TrEMBL record:
One of its GO terms (cellular component) is cytoplasm. Its EC number is 4.98.1.1. It is an enzyme of class 4 (lyase). This is Ferrochelatase. It comes from Salinisphaera japonica YTM-1. One of its GO terms (molecular function) is ferrochelatase activity. Fe(2+) binds at residues 202, 284. The lineage of its organism: Bacteria, Pseudomonadati, Pseudomonadota, Gammaproteobacteria, Salinisphaerales. Pfam families: Ferrochelatase.
Length: 333
C-alpha cells in the first residue's frame, strides 16, 4: 500500500497559548479563559469569579499587554512562533523516518490555534488515532491535566472520537536532559561561566502540592539530572521558582527574592539563568527573567544576569520530541 492510501495517525502537540495580539482587549480575552480554568485557580467559583471579573480583568490586562509588547516578534507571540517551528520540525523528521503517514497539528490550551481547531485538523486529515503531547517536561495538574480535560471536553460532542494516547511528562528523558546540557555548554563557550547557574521553574501554589500535585518533585528530578550531566556541585547551582500570582504562598525559593539578595551579596557577581520547564521562550522567560529579574540582580549591585534561551527550535530539542513521539506511537505506526 502506498503512503497516501494509509490511514494517517495524528499527533496533537500542545502548549499553554498566548493572546491573539498585544491589545488590552485581546489580553483580557486570553486571561479570562486562562484564569477561569478551575485547574489553574481552584478557589470556590462564588469567591473567585467576582474577584476575577471585578478586579483582575479590570486592571491586569493593560499591564500584561504592555509586557507582551516588549517580547512580541514580527510574526506574533514567541511561544506560538516557536511551537509552530517545533511542529514543522517534528513533521519533517517523522515524514523522513516513518512509513506510516503521521500528521502533527498544533493546539493551544488557551487562545488560538485552539485544541478544538487542532483536533479538527487531524479529523479532516482522516486520523482515527491521536497522540496528545503537551510540551511540558514536568507534570502539573495546572498544565498537563487541564490539557487532557480540554481534549475530552471537545470530544464529548463528536459522534466518533479518535482513539487517544497521551504523553504526560518527560522530565527525565535523556534527550531532554542532553539538549538542556548542550544549551548550557554552548552558552558557557560563548559567554564564559557565571558564578552561579540558576534553574528557574514556573511556580504553583504550595497548597496544590499538599493536595497531591507532583510538580516540584518533577522539577527536582530534572534539576538533579541536569546538574549531574554538567558535573555541577551542590554550590554551583540553585533551583528557584518564578511567576508568583496571588497572595497565598507559592513554591520557594522565589526567584525575585533570590536575585535581589544575590545582587547585594559580596561573593556572587554573575549569574546564568535558565528555565528548563519552558519548552519555548515566552512572556515568562523573555520579560520576567531577561528583563525584570536581570534588573533585580543588577540594580542591587550584581554585575550581570545572563539568560540562557529555552530549547525552542534547536535541532536536538526537535530530535528529542520526534523520538518520544515515535516511542509512544509503537504499534500504531
Ligand atoms: C511551564 C509551566 C507552567 C505552570 C506550571 C503554570 C502555572 C500557573 N500559571 C499561572 C498564571 C499565569 N501564567 C501566565 C503565563 C504563562 N504561564 C506559563 C506556564 C506555566 N504556568 C507560560 C508558558 C506562560 C506564558 C504565556 C505566553 O503567552 O507567553 C500568566 C499570563 C501572563 C500575565 O498576565 O502575567 C498568568 C496570569 C497560575 C495561576 C498557575 C498555577 C496555578
Ligand atoms: Fe503560568
Ligand atoms: Fe510573569
Amino acid at each position: 500500500m502506498s503512503r497516501q492510501d494509509q490511514t494517517p495517525v495524528g499527533v496533537l502537540f500542545t502548549n499553554l497559548g498566548s493572546p491573539d495580539d498585544t491589545s488590552t482587549p485581546a489580553v483580557r480575552r486570553y486571561l479570562r479563559e486562562f484564569l477561569s480554568d478551575s485547574r489553574v485557580i481552584d478557589l470556590n467559583r462564588a469567591v473567585w469569579l467576582p474577584l476575577l471579573y471585578g478586579v483582575i480583568l479590570t486592571f491586569r490586562p493593560r499591564k500584561s499587554a504592555e509586557a507582551y509588547r516588549t517580547v512580541w516578534m514580527d510574526e506574533g507571540s514567541p511561544l506560538i512562533i516557536y511551537a509552530r517551528r517545533q511542529v514543522a520540525g517534528i513533521q519533517a523528521k517523522l515524514d523522513a523516518q516513518l512509513e506510516t503517514p503521521v500528521v502533527v497539528a498544533l493546539g493551544m490550551r488557551y487562545g488560538n490555534p485552539s485544541i478544538e481547531a487542532g483536533l479538527e485538523e487531524l479529523h479532516a486529515a482522516g486520523c482515527k488515532k491521536v497522540l496528545v503531547f503537551p510540551a511540558y517536561p514536568q507534570y502539573s495538574a495546572t498544565t498537563v491535566a487541564t490539557t487532557f480535560d480540554k481534549v475530552s471536553e471537545v470530544l464529548e460532542d463528536w459522534p466518533e472520537p479518535p482513539r487517544l494516547r497521551q504523553i504526560n511528562r518527560y522530565r527525565q528523558d535523556s534527550g531532554y536532559i542532553g539538549a538542556l546540557a548542550n544549551s548550557v555548554r554552548e552558552h558557557w563557550e560563548a559567554h564564559g561561566r557565571a558564578d552561579k547557574l540558576v534553574m528557574s521553574f514556573h511556580g504553583i501554589p504550595k497548597r496544590y502540592v499538599k493536595q497531591g500535585d507532583p510538580y516540584p518533585r518533577d522539577c527536582g528530578e530534572t534539576a538533579r539530572l541536569l546538574a549531574a550531566e554538567l558535573g555541577l556541585g551542590r554550590n554551583d547551582y540553585k533551583v528557584c521558582f518564578q511567576s508568583r500570582f496571588g497572595r497565598e504562598p507559592w513554591l520557594q525559593p522565589y526567584l525575585d527574592e533570590t536575585m535581589k539578595a544575590w545582587g547585594k551579596s559580596d561573593d556572587i557577581h554573575t549569574v546564568d539563568v535558565m528555565c528548563p520547564g519552558f519548552s519555548s521562550d515566552c512572556l515568562e522567560t523573555l520579560e520576567e527573567i531577561k528583563e525584570e529579574n536581570r534588573e533585580y540582580f543588577e540594580d542591587n549591585g550584581g554585575e550581570a544576569l545572563r539568560y540562557i534561551p529555552a530549547l525552542n527550535d534547536r535541532d536536538d530539542h526537535i530530535e528529542m520530541f520526534t523520538r518520544l513521539i515515535r516511542e509512544e506511537l509503537a504499534g500504531w505506526v
